[in-house]
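Hmm, what's this shape?
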Amino acid sequence: MRRAVVALIAALALPAAAGAKEVTAVTVCGADACTRATDHASRDAFMHAGGVAEEAPGTPQRSYRLRVSVDEPGAGHVEDWIAYWLPDAGLLASRDESTGSLVFTGVDAPLADVLRRAARGHEARPPRRFVRHEPVARVVEVVEPPAPRPVAADAGGGAPSLAWAGVVGAVVLLGAAGVARVRRR
């Protein structure tokens, strides 16, 4: 989502050019109802809005849910993204797709006016904490290290075959040395 928010802010901060993505509607939902803003002033406020990343608010915040529709001329509907407007903190909270954490951006005065008008007559959602969680690696499976391989015993008496190989090797060497000594005489 961070990519989408950054791309949207970058696209919205630039003048609309042919083929550029545009905000076509903003739906502001309170606890009881929603208002869809499609007028030029509302869309323009979103097109020129842009804020820097902010810190998460320290207290529970009442909020309004926003659904922002983005279209591309000639291509039609491109995407919708969800954010939460925290009017008392002057922030938008959006979910970052890659990490799942919330990203907070400031709301400038023109956008705050549009959001206030759209939210007029709607009760805000009850206060809740909006917290930026840094992702923590999850352990999905614990794998035990492999157990040491037991040395296979031969069928004769349970002695390890490596030890037998050493004994047999020594006997062969001694035997070869004995044969060589006998031939020299």
In short: DSSP finds four helices and eight strands in the chain.
